[in-house]
Every structure is written in structure tokens, then in C-alpha cells.
Amino acid sequence: MVFAERCGTHRFATLAGFAGIGLIVAGAFGSGARPGAPAPASWSNVLLYLGIGVLLAAWVRLGHLVRTGSASAVDIRRAVWLWAVPLLVAPPLFSNDLYTYLAQGAVAQAGLDPYTHVPAELSGALIENAGGHWLSVPSPYGPLFILVVKSALGLTGGNPLFSALLTRLVMVAGLWLLCRAIPVLCRHLGGAPAGALWIVAANPLVLLHLVSGGHNDLLMIGLLAAGVGLVLDRAAVRGFALVAMAVAVKATAGVALPFLVWVWVAQRSGSGPTWREFLRAVVLSVSTVVVSFGLISGLAGVSLGWIKALDGNSVLEPLLSVPTALGKIAALLVPGFDSGQLVPGFRTAAWFVLAGVVAWLWWRSRRSAVTAVRGAAAALLATVLCLPVVLPWYYSWPLALGAAVRWRVTWIAFAAGFSAFLVVSSQTDGSTPLPLWGYMAGFVFSIAVAAGTRLRKRTCLPGDRAGRLSVLRMYTVLAPGWGSPVQRADLRDALKAALKNRDRAAIGALRSALAAMGGVAAVPVAGGSVAEGGRVAGAAGGLGVGEAQRGELSDAGVRSVGSTVSVVENEGRERAANVEGCGRRPRPEQAGRLCAGAAVPLRRVELVD
């Protein structure tokens, strides 16, 4: 019994994931991207895929604990770093792009323009490590990334090993930014920080492709999420500057810029957007982006030639790209045509579709700041779906912003399953495409992960399904002045354990004991999502209870209970909250005076202005 209880804790899930990471690191030394190394050994592949299975199982279990309130955002962040750090000392997995980055940085280090010169013009260990067509194409990455790689080579004297490690460390700064920005985004968009961090930062797709692979996409989405968070927090100039830095890493982040203009307009105009405020926001945002980008380009010593090189990977034809896959399928179905003829046509059509979809999303996003950020996330997803070349880690782009909104459990399960598929959709050393049977195996594997995520519990992640909560999300808060600190702590722990175990008899006994003590001892607590993103965790006196809620919102106090609850935040703002009871509404005598043991599980708590 004790062992079973320990297996159900977030600590056990975190340590299980760490064990999986250990197997992955061991396997990476035989199966990872190692220049000049022989083909992956069978023993290393066994260790690697066994570790991936353990990590995914631990990640799914951690998601169950988030859904029941047994794992907080702090717990998820700890798991993220415990799982991420060991990957930095192992060879890259599923891609050899890290060595390509260093080769492109070597071009800039040699005093050449990486946007007009190619690594093949140089020689040395850095160039030999990078293989494939990237040796003969200019760099498609922005000036900030070129500056990072160039600086890493300069600081390490061009040592391939230490340059790769330093570049990885800078990319991991994007993971830190993600962990800091996601709770801010959740506060505005209505999601739960723990659930959002679980689906993004702790996602094995992010860990095994972005962290292990050292991809610059990690730095891009970190800067993007941090910039959007600042814009939502009314620090628009700094926010646009950070998003400009994200664009200076990889151009894809620029998709979000037009949507953030609506955020600025909504904040400045108040009641509704006006053309005057729109034009002013456009001028200020464009000026901020241009100045920021100009400063970065000047520091890097490069021009805007990288824009011409954005199609450098168009020779690739991965099946993860929707237009590419459609072109290949059409070539099989239409006699007389091959993929070389049809794929370019589908890719061209996809660009027009993408332009139309993004324009439509942008216009629909003008209503409010929240809809604008949601529109930006949807536009990033549309970008991934329409790009001619899509690699597994590209799907982290829309997750960086989209995870902060409320999700239905079905969509969470789909995202988890699809993430599992993407993790195993490449060869371990990134050298060759996965064969068809590998895709089929990954598809079956993803179904298992999705089913495990969906069927384990019928509850929801905090913040999903328009704020609906299970009874497990109800906590009890004691009114100030009742009992000693020890008595209060004991009572909280007892009620928390009873609620977690769904022990109705124990809950009833505790409520009876409270009633017998007399006085205003216990008050109902609604733990869940609200429209503005924070969670109502408190009651009389502003004393919040629950590990999943500490540090994730300001102290809140419930002024009255009934059909409407008034929530007071630290900033002094007071809003009304519509409350929908779970099965029954609070009794009339509870409206003005909170009676002992009168806790009512609440299913919907939404703040309204």
C-alpha cells in the first residue's frame, strides 16, 4: 500500500523520467549524431528506445497528477530541469543540425558573409562534421543566431566539442524563458500553468529534439513566449523587442507580430479599437522591431541576405509536410505524373492557402488581446501545416503560445499522442529519413500514449473545458482566527487527503467535526480557471490551500457565496465571478454567513468584468 502511494506521487514520476533520461543518454553515445562514427549499434538503439518508452510513461503519469491537482507548476519545472540537464552532455539525437550551425558560424568567424558564402568554401574539423546539402547553401538563420554561434566559436577557440556545448547552453536559455513566460500567458489566456508547462516544457518532443538536438527553435519560441507575455502585461516596447529577437533567430516568429499589434491596440483604446490607435500601434511596433533588428544586425556584422536563403532546405521532402505528402500521394494516384512534377505545385498552392488563412485569422483577432494571442497561436499552427518542409520539432512553435489556453482532455490526449509520434519519427542520428514501417510503428505507439493520457482519469487538466473542475479540485480554507496553526494544518491535510481519495465518509466526518466545533470554521473554495487566467484558490481571509495553487496566483478572498462570488486580488481589483454549482447550489443561509462544513464543490468559476 505504501509503495503504491509512493508510485502515485509526482516525485516518483519525476524520478522514473530521470531513469528514462539515463537510458537515453547511455544510448545516445552509440546512436546519436556523432560525426564520423559508424552506424548506430543495436545495443544502443535498444537502450535509447527503452529510455524513450520510460520517459513517455513518466510524462503521461505526471500529466495524470496535474489533472488531479497532485502536481504543481513548481513540480513540473523541477521535472523539466532534472530531465533536460543530462541531455546536454550526450551527443545530439534525431538531428545533426548542431554541427551545421557551427559550420555556418565558422563562415562568419572567418570574416565572410554567411548569407552569400557557404561552409564548403572552408576546411577543417567544423566543416567536416557538418554533412549533407547544408555545406553548399547559405545560412537561413537570423543575425542573432549567427552572433551566438560566432561568439561560441570565438570563446572556445573553434573547439568543436566545447563550441557545441556552449551553443546548446544558449539554446537552453529558451527553455528557461518558456518556463518563466508560460505562467504569465496562462494568467491572461485562461489556462493552468501546471498543465501548460507539462504539455510544452516537459514534453519529450521538446526535450529530445530541441534540448538534445540543440535546435535554435528552442531559443526562438522562448523569446517569442516571453515577448508575448510582456506585451500582455502592458510592457509593449520590451515585448516587441523580444519578439524581434526571436525573429532574428528564426524568421517564423514574425508570424506573431501582426497579431500583437491588436494586443497593443486593445490596451490603448480600451472600449474598442479605433483606426487612430491602430495606426499609432503599427508605427510604434514597426519602429521597435526595426530598431531592435538593426541593432542586432549591426552587432552580428551581417546584412539582410538571410531572407533570400530561407528556402535553403526546399530540396528536402519530408512526409511531415502536408503539401509535400499530398503531392507524393497524388503522384501515386495520378498516372503519368511523378512527385517531382506534383510536389512543387502543391507547395505553391499551400503558400496561397497559408496567406489567406493568416489574413483571416488576423482580422478575426481584432476583438481583444486574448483573441489576438490565440490567433497568433493558430497562425503558427497553420504555418507548420502549410510549409513545404516540416521537421518534427516545428510543431513546438504553436505549442509555445497555444498551451496557455484552455484545452479539452480529448485535445490534450491528441497532442500527447502526436508528440510521441513526432519523437520517434526520425532516425536516431538524423542521417536518413525514417522508413515507412517506422512511421507505422510510431503511429501505433502514439495511439497508445494518447489512450493512456485520455482514459486514465475522467477529470480535466486545470483550466481546460471552459474551467470545469472535478470534486478533487475543491479545497477547504479555514477562516482566520480559528484554531492553532497546527490544528489548521492538520485539518487541511486531512481534508485534502480525503478529497484526493474520494473518501466520502471521511469528508462527511470531517465536516461534522467542523460543525460540532461551532463558529465559522470552514468555507468553500473554488480551485479552477478563470477568464483572466488566474485561479480562484481562496476564501475568507485570502488563505489559499493546495500545492498546485501555491505561487501561481495572488492571494484571493471570497467576500460572499451564492450565485455570485467576489474575488479580490492583491492588486486591489475586484471582479464578479459567476459560479455554477456542481449538483446543487449553496443554501440561502450560506450567502452572507459561511457556515462550518458547508463546502460546496464548484464546477465553473469565470471572472467577468
Automatic annotation (TrEMBL):
<feature type="transmembrane region" description="Helical">
    <location>
        <begin position="407"/>
        <end position="424"/>
    </location>
</feature>
<feature type="transmembrane region" description="Helical">
    <location>
        <begin position="46"/>
        <end position="66"/>
    </location>
</feature>
<feature type="transmembrane region" description="Helical">
    <location>
        <begin position="161"/>
        <end position="179"/>
    </location>
</feature>
<keyword id="KW-1133">Transmembrane helix</keyword>
<keyword id="KW-0328">Glycosyltransferase</keyword>
<feature type="transmembrane region" description="Helical">
    <location>
        <begin position="12"/>
        <end position="34"/>
    </location>
</feature>
<feature type="transmembrane region" description="Helical">
    <location>
        <begin position="242"/>
        <end position="266"/>
    </location>
</feature>
<dbReference type="GO" id="GO:0016020">
    <property type="term" value="C:membrane"/>
</dbReference>
<keyword id="KW-0472">Membrane</keyword>
<keyword id="KW-0808">Transferase</keyword>
<feature type="transmembrane region" description="Helical">
    <location>
        <begin position="436"/>
        <end position="455"/>
    </location>
</feature>
<dbReference type="GO" id="GO:0016757">
    <property type="term" value="F:glycosyltransferase activity"/>
</dbReference>
<dbReference type="InterPro" id="IPR049829">
    <property type="entry name" value="MptA/B-like"/>
</dbReference>
<comment type="similarity">
    <text>Belongs to the MptA/B family.</text>
</comment>
<feature type="transmembrane region" description="Helical">
    <location>
        <begin position="78"/>
        <end position="94"/>
    </location>
</feature>
<keyword id="KW-0812">Transmembrane</keyword>
<feature type="transmembrane region" description="Helical">
    <location>
        <begin position="375"/>
        <end position="395"/>
    </location>
</feature>
<feature type="transmembrane region" description="Helical">
    <location>
        <begin position="343"/>
        <end position="363"/>
    </location>
</feature>
<feature type="transmembrane region" description="Helical">
    <location>
        <begin position="278"/>
        <end position="307"/>
    </location>
</feature>
<protein>
    <submittedName>
        <fullName>Alpha-1,6-mannosyltransferase</fullName>
    </submittedName>
</protein>
<dbReference type="Pfam" id="PF26314">
    <property type="entry name" value="MptA_B_family"/>
</dbReference>
<feature type="transmembrane region" description="Helical">
    <location>
        <begin position="191"/>
        <end position="212"/>
    </location>
</feature>
